[in-house]
Design brief:
By secondary structure, the chain is an alpha+beta fold. It has two domains: 236 residues, ATPase, nucleotide binding domain (Nucleotidyltransferase, domain 5, 2-Layer Sandwich); 210 residues, 2-Layer Sandwich (Nucleotidyltransferase, domain 5), CATH 3.30.420.40. Helices cover 34% and strands 24% of the residues. The longest helix has 27 residues. One of its GO terms (biological process) is glycerol-3-phosphate metabolic process. Keywords: ATP-binding, Glycerol metabolism, Kinase, Nucleotide-binding, Transferase.
Amino acid sequence: MNYLLAIDQGTSSTRAMIYTVHGKLVTSSQYPLTQHYPQAGWVEHNPEEIWQKTLAAMRDVVSQVSVDQTIACGLTNQRETTVIWNKKTGECLAPAIVWQDRRTAEYCKTLSSFESMVQEKTGLIPDPYFSATKLKWYLDNIPEAKDLAEKGNLAFGTIDSFLIWRLTSEHLHLTDITNASRTMLFNIKEERWDLDLLDFFKIPESVLPKVCASDSNFGIIDKQWLGKELPITGVAGDQQAALIGQGCFNIGMVKATFGTGAFLLLNTGAKPVLSQHKLLTTVAYKIQGQTVYGLEGSIYHAGTTVRWLRDSMKLITHAEETETLANSLQGNEGVYLVSAFTGLGAPHWLSVPGATMVGLSLSTNKAHFARAALEGVCYQTREVCHCMREDSQLDISLLRVDGGMAVNSWFLQFLADQCQLQVQKPRDIETTAKGAAILAALGSGIFNSLSDLHENWDIEQTFNPQRALEQVELDYRGWVKALQKAKK
């Protein structure tokens, strides 16, 4: 039996998994990651904590199988989160700025006149979400970073680049095309760092990693870390990895990952589709020389809203309780939560932090809070699905879901009703890590084509629309009113 190691470095935790070459999960290890909120709208991670917990999780799982039978490693990561380090020493110069961070919001407002140019080149819109303004903030606010950059000794990376640098004996400075496409510095049509944008943001090209296809060889994990040299043969950002793990290789297939945030990604094929609804055009993957594009809608808060109910509000002890609480109500009774804790993502792109709860009364209890938290994610998903249909002109009737919230059947049924499509839940909901393993298998030559992978996806449960359409629309109209209040 041969095995694949998958590293899934996420926003709230770091995980490592061992899969068989046919995609069956053998074992896993997970460590929570500390979130730091030094100011309102700021979100940071300690990159050294990321490194140590990634290493610990890798060692945990590799020790449970024969290391000699582990043949390759795949890596997937939280995207846009930005790290800088000294190329000479490997030392990080500052906390990692997380994708949710909004510290550059005011600067991004000054870029509105350049929005069409940025979108045409990168598929993105000027927003603090992406790495470019985070990197600019480092260069503007950390004198050592600017000095090192001028000497050619500063390295910028998203988390994949940072881990590849640390893991490989050669300290390779690499990224894959999916992560590069999320920086707002990468020309997705020409597949290169865009010199005009680098000049615009005053970012020297020397700080950037080399961009590789998703199934490339990203170097060898040094023997000191796992007791054996191991090639890294696949890398993709977490949402693209989930698309691969969900087997969405055909045009028109769409997946939704409900983790810390919620992310919908639609396979649009070989040509990028620019959105008229402020969705994001991104590289879905580049495998065996073929670049495939996607249309993405990002919802900032999904699992974080449930965690807020648990950790800050103390309304629940475990996330699973939200299903029972939501089920205990016949309806939402006019209670809505717009979870704009750090702003709103697609299609609104509201940068001002401020969650809004409407419809509270003396009879409101924790069940209403739980239901409102779940419903809010469904309404935002519905909005994104509508935009995807409009932009792509594709018939979207199926949504494959994964992530932590996908264990909640009440949530998935409400989602099917609001979006008016079939929701499919796979047997393995951790498809992000599975996608990394699939890439590792492709990159190491275990599989020769994407058609060989269809048998790796296995459905567990299907949810079809059930509620009366009149009630579905009534609930949604209440959400629209709540959203208008939040935007004022």
